Amino acid sequence: MFLCCWLALVALISMTLSTNPGVKVKLTEKGLDYGRQLGMASIQQRLKTIQVPDISGTQKVSPIGTVQYSLSNMQIVDCGLPKSSVDLVPGTGVRLQIGNAFISLHGNWRVKYLRIIKDSGSFDLNVNGLTITTSIDIKSDETGRPAVSSINCAAIVGSVTIKFHGGASWLYNLFKNFIDKALRNELQKQICPLVADAVSDLNSQLKTLNVVAQVDQYAEIEYSMVSSPTVSKSSIDLSLKGEFYNIGKHQEPPFSPAAFSLTPEINMLYIGVSVFTTNSAAFVYNKAGALSLYITDDMIPQGSPIRLNTRTFGAFIPQIAKQFPGLMMKLLVKTVKNPAITFEPNNVTVQATSTVTAYAIQPNTTLSPLFVLNLETSVSAQVFVSGIRLAGAVTLNKMDLTLGTSYVGEFQVRPLNSILQMVLKVVVIPKVNVQLAKGYPLPTLGKMKLVNTQLQVLKVRDWMFSIKLHAFE
Length: 473
Description:
Layout: H1 4-7, E1 12-13, E2 23-28, H2 29-47, E3 55-61, E4 65-80, E5 83-89, E6 93-113, E7 117-140, E8 146-156, E9 159-165, H3 172-200, H4 202-206, E10 212-214, E11 219-222, E12 224-225, E13 230-231, E14 235-240, E15 243-246, E16 269-274, H5 275-287, E17 292-296, H6 310-314, H7 318-323, E18 328-335, E19 340-344, E20 347-361, E21 367-386, E22 389-406, H8 417-438, E23 440-441, E24 449-457, E25 462-471
Parallel strand pairs: 1-12
Antiparallel strand pairs: 2-14, 2-16, 3-4, 4-6, 5-6, 6-7, 7-8, 7-9, 10-11, 11-15, 13-14, 16-25, 17-18, 18-20, 19-20, 20-21, 21-22, 22-23, 24-25
């Protein structure tokens, strides 16, 4: 797998370009070198598959005249790539250089001269000082995923040594030179196509990129690229759309991503998720009606003295107990506009505007509305990486209640604060955290694994977490 660490991050190159991304990925030189180490094994295996065809011909050799020769059953027995490097070419791409490589080959030789004299044996050939230089080109395929290819490849065979076995020893030096030349030309002709094949092999794996990753029954997230990769002296930067959509309906939110940047440090990979991405999630879930919850008494802990019935609420609103005596109640908590998510240093805050509608449950299960409260809440979110998903958990900061509509006459809202705060803490927030703990998929390739993840909220407009890549299987 050649440069898989880098290419694992190249989601797709979209035909439609956008100004700013929602998600940015930065692969540093350290990450690129990690990919080089993984890639060498793939190239080495490819070079071992070199198939050298039988070579035959005639050569005039003084003083015996024309010699017919053939080389057959040639097989690669060993191959080594002890020295390699990967360089970033600003504005262009990546250049791979392999030096001091060697190839060992074994085969059979046969000659015929003076029309009737034949001789044969075997030989071992060692190629040393082999150098390979190639560049990687990235294009978008018909699905919007990247397709990679090797360009500007050059292979130079260094020294060649041949050791013959069997036959008359005086013949060896007579055809050593033209065997050397024939094999050198054949090897040089095959090396670059095999390197190109090793690069091309990545395309099947790149098709596993989760360009559109389903999150749950409501949402999916798109990781298409909004612009081509940017290559600098120190890193490769990828700009991904990073936008949530309702499944089957791609409607753009009424806001756009703002520009932000990532600063390379010491790790292999950095992923920056902007507030646009998280707010697009809020937009999608609110539009899907997923940010609403019916709360019934069986959801309240059994040991709680506060119950969802007209007796409890009647202690604060006497007219409820009078008009609807002895009935159970149900609450509907529902957002009325998109929650607003902001990033501050080491803190993520979510502001939500909701309504709480209280109903009395009649014996025939009919719901009688009692009142509607306006609820403003602020929660802090702890964000973390779980496997290859971004997960989180929230805690309540504060809440504010005001009366929206009353169907039982005027009453003071303040006494209900303790009830609603309890409901939020023991019912609503735990349910939200169960969903958040499931996480949201990060851009991945195949069975990519992430280890030693570090997440940090940086500033108001974006957060960043650094990742060390472990392996690709």
